[in-house]
F-box domain-containing protein (Stylosanthes scabra), 300 residues
Amino acid sequence: MEQEKKKKKQQQKQKQNSIHDILPLELIQIILLSVPARHLARFKCVSKLWYSLISDPHFAELHLQHTPAPTPTCLFIEESAEASLVHPEELFTRQNYEIKEVSLPFKKKNPPSDFRVMGSCRGFVLLNLQPHFLVVWNPLTGSSKKISYSFIVSRSKRPTWSSMFPGATGLYGLGYDACRDDYLVFVGWHDSDFQHHLDCISLRTNSWVNLDSALPKPFNSREWKSPGLFLNGSIHWLVCPYFRTAYSEAILIFDLKERSFSMISIPEEVVTYHDIDLVLLGGCIAIYCRGVVLIKLTYG
């Protein structure tokens, strides 16, 4: 009888042993790094340890480095529904594909209509949250960071600036500085005297930096389309078709490492088009008109 009781106790202890007791934390992390990013949100529900591990920004960076190739993902935000993620490759190749719904950050206090997508970079999405806030959000892991730009509103001396944002700004975007291992959010704007300014916030130091001295001269922030596209360590903007100036045939580029601007010319065959825009396509910047890709650009 005593031996049977001992066996039962040992069996109960074995059942109570979790995966954390069987595998070392380093091995669990290696396994999780091989899991596709779109499944990580569910894995966070396994335990508090897994939730903490997956939510760690360092894990997100390691996971990005281990990913063999980025999976194109589309984000949709509707006024009366949750945000949704769609993976185009699976949508057209898998039967009974289900669209994944994700919860917007800070939604309890803000309806979906308060959010506007401003850009994206390495799996992070830049949102504008009324009033006076930007949000850097990872829709796959649910992590987010709220950034106040109220000081820009006060500096602008324009009472309607907050309600006009992002239309009141000409430049904005999200980029990653690999040399400093830092994500940067940029906002270009002009004050009531039409003096142009450029500010960026470092997510590593959580501090704003003024970059007015880096702006090319002459400069009009309203000339440029937004949001900026991040590629090869730089953010790219295209001139707004309503403004025809010296910049009309160029793409404005800001190098995050050097903190400096440069420009490249638009190919002659597309200069005459008015309704053009920039997109990322296959690791290149592409120019398209009314949904039709015109030309892919490579440089550097």
Summary: Residues 149-300 form one domain. The mean pLDDT is 75. The longest helix spans residues 2-16.
